[in-house]
Write the structure tokens for this entry.
Amino acid sequence: MDKTTALAIAAEAGDEIASRLEFLYELDQLKTVLRQSMLADGSRQENSAEHSWHLAMTAMTLAPLADEPIDVERAIKILLVHDIVEIDAGDVFIYDDAQRAAAEAAEQEAADRIFGLLPAEQGGEFRALWDEYEDRSTPEGRFAYACDRLQPLLLNVAIGGGSWRRHGVTADRVKAINGAIDDGLSQVWAVAERCIDQAVVDGQLLPPPTA
Amino acid sequence: MDKTTALAIAAEAGDEIASRLEFLYELDQLKTVLRQSMLADGSRQENSAEHSWHLAMTAMTLAPLADEPIDVERAIKILLVHDIVEIDAGDVFIYDDAQRAAAEAAEQEAADRIFGLLPAEQGGEFRALWDEYEDRSTPEGRFAYACDRLQPLLLNVAIGGGSWRRHGVTADRVKAINGAIDDGLSQVWAVAERCIDQAVVDGQLLPPPTA
């Protein structure tokens, strides 16, 4: 037995089952995509699958603090699918503008391929959730994005600077990028902003460059 | 900056925020709880956080094949929280009956402690989701449990037996334990059962002991 044989057996039961099992096997690969963030204990880099779980839990947990009324279940589903394109396109370090721009086409192709494995209607639904994350045109999309900015900030703070320090990111850029937290979780952003300031005081994060 | 300082800053903003951020830091530890299953590429053991993400995606993906009408969002939330107790109680190998019985009290204590970090109302909601997984008294609880039995089976099949082989589990026990898939996803169980039979034919899973 292997994956191919399992999918051949599933194919005999019809495409409704086989296509979905193939998609689930495909998803397993997100566990091998490494992010810049370390775990809060500093032991290793975080992967995008466990990150997605942590974000879904962040949404569930912080929903009562959301600025706008949100459908939390929809925000959870947005966060569950939001990094799936990284299976093909890899993780992009948020502070690397050139890499972010270059990844855009690859991510669109990845979305076509991976969500395209599913029956069309369901693939379209998952794709729409991913688009909602990318566009941030709905309260749920903005809330999901706020969660996705907060969680790595919490991890960096826990280990004294983490990927900010490793990549020489300055405090002004950390605030500019993570200021999106303010668009969905403004009370939490007030705390996060104080943590950023304290990280500068503690010498763990570079101050803004002087003019 | 470290976790303690971040939580002290949060505490000044009030317990509604601080308790939730503490809970989110606590959850990070689920990424270090290792399961018996290997990833589908055989590269390493799976951890309980990425497993929980894969299960939530399994529920989203297989919902159209559910036997009973289900609230899929509730099933997703059940699966997101179902392994959180392992932060204190560790992962239990499903085929180890003695370990499973021994873990029960530890899991109850873990649920008290970890969900108890949250504001009472929300902690109660999360706890109820975990109870629903444990009790399997609702269609969502049964569907979630069926997903939780299917996913490791798919992983074991992908690597030619995996934890079944390593622990000398026989096919009759694999069918008995995973037969719960039949309680929520009967069409998928028919495929899984054929995969189990094929694994025996291929010498990757021990046949039932002869009387």
User: Anything to note?
Assistant: Chain B has a mean pLDDT of 96. Chain B has one domain: 3-201.
